[in-house]
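Dear colleague,

Thank you for sharing your sequence with our group. We've completed the structure prediction you requested, and as agreed, I am returning the results in plain text so they can be pasted directly into your records. Please verify that the sequence below matches your submission; if there's any discrepancy, let me know and we will rerun it promptly.
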Amino acid sequence: MSNLTGNLAFTIENKTACIGILGLGYVGIPLGVSISKAGFKIIGFDVLESRVNQLNQGKSPIKHIADSEIATMIGVGFEATVDFSRASECDVLIICVPTPLDKTREPDLSFVTATMDSIAPYLREGQLLSLESTTWPGTTEQILLPYIENRGLKVGSNFYLVYSPEREDPGNAHYSTKTIPKVVGGHTKACLELGSKLYATFIDVVVPVSSTAASEMVKLLENIHRSVNIGLVNEMKIVADAMGLDIFEIIDAAATKPFGFTAYYPGPGIGGHCIPIDPFYLTWKAREYGLHTRFIELAGEINASMPQYVVDKTVRALNEVGKSLKGAKILALGIAYKRDVDDMRESPSVFVMELLRDWGADVAYSDPNVPVFPKMREHSFDLSSVKITPNSLQDFDAVILLTDHSDFDYEMILEFSPLLIDTRGKYRVRDKKVIKA
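Please find the predicted structure tokens below.
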């Protein structure tokens, strides 16, 4: 073990290492909370000055992270900054920036490369760099490694490089950053040892793998597994509906089998940063090897078609009561991508709202976690959340349950909605005004 390796290992073990987190969003902030609880000083980096100021004032920009958690971080020495030159102060740098798809559904690593452009001049001997952003196998070695080598640093000898995929599940009360096992792959054996040592200081179980590419593939497999299974149950929902069967009843009964079956539930599509996007990273990379990932792409097509299915069911339901979608007042219930969070990334609710608007409907929404429709790169609504009351519900021609937040009064919604489109299987009643979608 070199002196530099030993010194970094010592500062990690004694929790005197300074940790830099690059990207203070849905991954970076929960990660910072967990690291600070272990006793490390953290410098958080972000390009949004408003986000940096908010955090330095002890306020959380994320619903499921309390202000008290940010205050605890600050008490241990956390500070946020837009000054990326301070990366030189950090012994460990962890990249947690978005990796979306572009308009042609190809990987967009611009946030990763922009981050590397910002910190590259300040990389120095004795640092550990970890990428957590989801990407295609080979990214760490093909994209990050050249930045480091161009600085004259030798990875595995005087600098250390790992990939460790984020596994955040916002709003999950059963698992936290600390209790979710962490996969780590290193560019060299020394990199893996240091990366594993780092994550073991604030995560209960560390799972080492043979390389950064293997670690990158692990993340894609996890989310492709979910995408394919959700695509399967979404297709089964359409078939069951045509047969007059309740897919949620079918799934619940199948889930009583104690082996060989895992319950996945259908909805109006798939959302979040991971499942709608990550499978296409592998699809894109597979083409380099002359391979066509038909199974993955088929699941993606099915899931992407679900918002249209919901709108079609709404159109037919309105027709049954003598109304047209054009000019109809429609209330979307829940626009975050999943229950009890404020995360709008790739939310299928937004795609449903856009289709309804395109067809001439007067669209409104209610979501206790999203008081004002946020600015989004590819979606725009000038709307604020509508308060649900018996009177307000009766003002609409149809109400579409898209995200089943715990805060909704489901009995009131059922009683006072003139027409209720249920995409989440919340209502198991036989009522002609409840339409399964």
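Summary note from our side: The chain has a mean pLDDT of 94.

Kind regards,
the structure core
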